[in-house]
Amino acid sequence: MDDGLDALIQESAAERRNGNRRNMNIPTGKAGEIVAELERRLIMGYYKAGENLSFNMLAETFEVSRQPVSAAIGHLRASGYVEVLPQVGCRVVKPSKEEIFDFFRIHSAIEATAVELAVERKTKVGVGQLRAIKPPPVKDLGAVPARAAYIRYIDAFHEQIWAMAKAPMLEGQFSGMRNLASFYLWQGISSLAPKIANVLNQERTKIADLIAAGDKEGAAALMRSHILGKPALVFD
What we know:
CATH class of the largest domain: Mainly Alpha
Distance between the termini: 34 Å
Number of helices: 10
Number of domains: 2
Number of strands: 3
Radius of gyration: 18 Å
Mean pLDDT: 87
CATH architecture of the largest domain: Up-down Bundle
């Protein structure tokens, strides 16, 4: 087993012990476990865009029959991570640059709306919790543990904004977009440059400051440009 996969498996075990599931809208049972693990590997960039995934190999890896693997692949296909092609099998999607920018355009509008709701419904406790979320070191984001910690930080930041927005039904509908956004970005680069990460971290701090100040328009505008700017930083 290579070091990257071993680190992913250890991180997954730690998250299961902590009860942390990245996406609750997944199948139950063994298929759900496979979905969660494959989605995690895709988000972390372990599987590359355009890479073929063998049903038999996955069944052997997870020590199951093809049925739960097929169910898991079906969910990942519906979620936008893979495609299933005749005589080819399962393949990690390889969206065009234009498709990625279109996705982030829509994603930015949704997250900006969440910010507006968060400002309208903020409390001192919620603001304090948001401002307490700090980024981890970004010196070595090419390493799995550092990358995992950075993605957890981003998730915590956005999840707190949604918690402040008090719109759980909407969050449930759109939370998967954040995972997909991470997947697209980590496919674009093998390691996020610390310079880029630091710029994005500073923007998140500013967004938190604007929310605390009650500047709905400014916070929403910065969130929109923050998300829209990510693919430009990575792919341009």
